Amino acid sequence: MGYELGRFEEAVDEELLCAICRMVLESPVQFRQCEHAFCDLCISEWLRHKNVCPIDRNLVIPTDLIPTPRILRNLLGKLSISCNNRELGCIERMPLESLHTHLDMCNFNPTRQVQCEDGCGCLIEVRHLSKHSCLSTLGSMVRERDENILKLSSQLKELKQVVSDQHHEILLVKEIVRNLRISSISAGLTTEAETDSVRERVKWLSSLSRARISRWGGMISTPDSVLQAMVKRALIDSGCPVELATQLISNSHERRWPPGLSMLETRQSNRHRYEEFVPKRIPTKQAIVLMACENEHMGEAMMRDPGFVIIFAHGVD
Amino acid sequence: MASLAIQRVKREFKEVVTSSEAENSQIKLEMVAENLKHLQGEIKGPPDTPFEGATFILDILIPDSYPFNPPKVKFATKIWHPNISSATGAICLDILKDQWAAAMTLRTVLLSIQALLASAEPDDPQDAVVAKQYKETPEIYHMTAKFWAEFFAGGNPSSYSADLRQKVKSLCDMGIQSLDAVRALSHYNWDATTAVESIFS
């Protein structure tokens, strides 16, 4: 909002008036396109209502506003204006450009700040000087600080609590990490043990030679325990892990053979598939071992996990 | 009321009073309330129009957000014009609505309204009945507008005004209010029978 016309000694040219407030331009800005100038505050308020120049109604945006040319500012700056505090008694006149410098020093300016000389040294607005009392000013300052200290110490307390909570959480996380590490180590050991047993098994199996069966009819479907014990001994001697040997021997009777071999009738109907087996010779014995890992192609009807043994009366090379 | 609005209206008031148009008594502005929020404008009917010689009173309300929003202006005097409601006096004029700009003043508003009286816009009507008459039977519109200006706004009497007054009087004799009589007669192109029917139906 501009300066009231009544404050100027001489008639002010129409060009120096804001078309919005109809007063002398204060902090003028103009549109880049049409160069129409307005008080900064007036045009900002207008642009909140409409995006057109208030004079020619062409479309504009706030960023089209630029400073007015120096010549306009100079013309405004030279206008002789009365002090804002004229009604309070200031009779001074000054060029508009030095109005602000004057107001900072004007003895009639009610908002001018002066330092109290009675002892407290506070900066006080002139209008409050007559009611000013150092004691009450200092008293309220002390109260304000006390309140601040209270506020800060309660903040400090809260922050301390936060820090302590976080410390506990960190301890908890550390404990979890430690446990995880231990369990992962033990898990790693188990894996190694398993790998070892697999390696042992593979090593044994690859040491066996492929058996050639000249007479499948020579198989003993119901070996007795003596025979089984003999073959088991041979298995272990060949390097088969004891645990595996026990499993394999327990699978050497037709009761424990896969369904396709467990009865005479099924054996007869599957006889044509015998040559598809990958049989391994159990050294020194008329016996073969059929491992599941080498005979996956036979299917469930002809194979049993982890494998089974067939003891022959004769016919194994 | 915002201080900018007060400041501006004060200055505009002075501007109108000292203007050349006021000197020629073409426009006039008066305060209704001391707070400058409610004003009364006055415009003369422009020459070579049905409104010549008549004086129209305008009711002006200044919003707190003035001059960022336009003043609210309507006719207090009855007028027969396509862009002014014959019932309420509401004005259809772009600068009083979306075409308002903060650089406009009460003086330019009064002059714009005066200019509107000289150049009606029947395609953007405020009063559909008047606009229809303006387009379909321009002579009857001219006669009616002139009669209204004479009857309500002190315009110069015309050669046919005695006839029209007689028609109004005949309706008044049936107990009809004169304003209602003028409205009904104007609405029905001065066909007294239809006008009476419209009132009593």
Automatic annotation (TrEMBL), chain A:
Whether rRNA-binding counts among this entry's keywords is no
Q: Give the first-level EC class, as a single word.
A: transferase
| Domain RING-type positions | 18-57
Supply one GO BP term. Answer: regulation of canonical NF-kappaB signal transduction
Catalysed reaction(s) here are: S-ubiquitinyl-[E2 ubiquitin-conjugating enzyme]-L-cysteine + [acceptor protein]-L-lysine = [E2 ubiquitin-conjugating enzyme]-L-cysteine + N(6)-ubiquitinyl-[acceptor protein]-L-lysine
Record keyword Zinc present: yes
EC number(s) recorded for this UniProt protein = 2.3.2.27
Q: Which UniProt keywords apply?
A: Metal-binding, Transferase, Ubl conjugation pathway, Zinc, Zinc-finger
Q: What is this protein called?
A: E3 ubiquitin-protein ligase NRDP1
Q: Tell me what organism the protein belongs to.
A: Oopsacas minuta
Automatic annotation (TrEMBL), chain B:
Query: What keywords does the record list, in alphabetical order?
Result: ATP-binding, Nucleotide-binding, Transferase, Ubl conjugation pathway
SUPFAM superfamilies associated with the record: UBA-like (SSF46934), UBC-like (SSF54495)
Q: Which residues form the active site?
A: 92 (glycyl thioester intermediate)
Any Pfam family: UQ_con
Which GO molecular function annotations are given, in alphabetical order?
Answer: ATP binding; transferase activity
Q: Where is the UBA domain?
A: 161-201
Extract the InterPro entries matched here: UBA, UBA-like_sf, UBC, UBQ-conjugating_AS, UBQ-conjugating_enzyme/RWD
Taking every annotated instance into account, which residue ranges of this chain make up the domain UBC core? 4-154
Taxonomically, the superkingdom here is Eukaryota
The similarity annotation says: Belongs to the ubiquitin-conjugating enzyme family.
- Full protein name: Ubiquitin-conjugating enzyme E2 K-like
